[in-house]
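Worked problem 6 (solution included).
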Amino acid sequence: MKLELFVYLLFMLFTSISWSQNTDSKKIYTDAYNKEIDKTIYLKKCKNHTYKCLEYKTDSLVVNKVLNKFYFGKLSTQVYQQIRLLINRDSKKKIDSGEIIVLKYYDSLLSFSTLNKKHIKHTLAVKKDTSLSLRDKGRRTHDFNEKKFINNRKKWLKKQNKCIEKYERKFSIKINYLYKAEENVVNNYGGFNWIKDNGVFKNQFFKIMYNYNLAIIKPDGEFYLNGGHTTDKRVEKLLENSNWEQYKNDLELSKTTHMENGYGLFEKIPFYHNSKHCF
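Solution. The predicted structure is:
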């Protein structure tokens, strides 16, 4: 089971438990900028694949929030320099001033024991969900044991090293892997340098758990955040071209004119999980 799948299982577990515990709580719906919106508008946006919709619990509310799945932004010169120097300090890589920074972000690095407990709870929740067909239940559950955990972790690490080598050779970039929390198991995920985030990167790019997991930062401070399926070819377009105006336009058209299937760089991707990819 790949690390991406671990994160998926954790998300499914969170939403299942949150739903079962909060059926009596008041529900509100908000857009990506925390403005309350009508449920009809919320559901319409959720059908647009450039957004993702997550549910959160407060003491008295169940918040259904629309989030941007893809985002373009710009760092100030000062913030960019601070981030570049921070990565230089905490990694064994020196990022030159003209290089693109690529960040792969993981909220947690967990032990087999913790992941197995979450897997069991997730499987039970799926089996009890009467709204799912047997086929859907099969798709949302997977066999998991310590041997598979170890073997898949080794395969994942080997693949990531190949990806790093390939793309750092092909482009003027430095790829860095970051994590926020762990159970003293980071050595079990060795093979390349992890950077532990003390909050700087999370606050700047990855504020909401399960929203974004990839950041591409150009030397001029312009950056792109990805929180959905993408292909290596699409990432390569961003790495090859210094002018992203076309891609920003693609995203805007995907949110408006081509809401159902997306457009250009953000067109829906068929069979994503069946293809090999680094990003």
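Discussion: Residues 3-274 form one domain.
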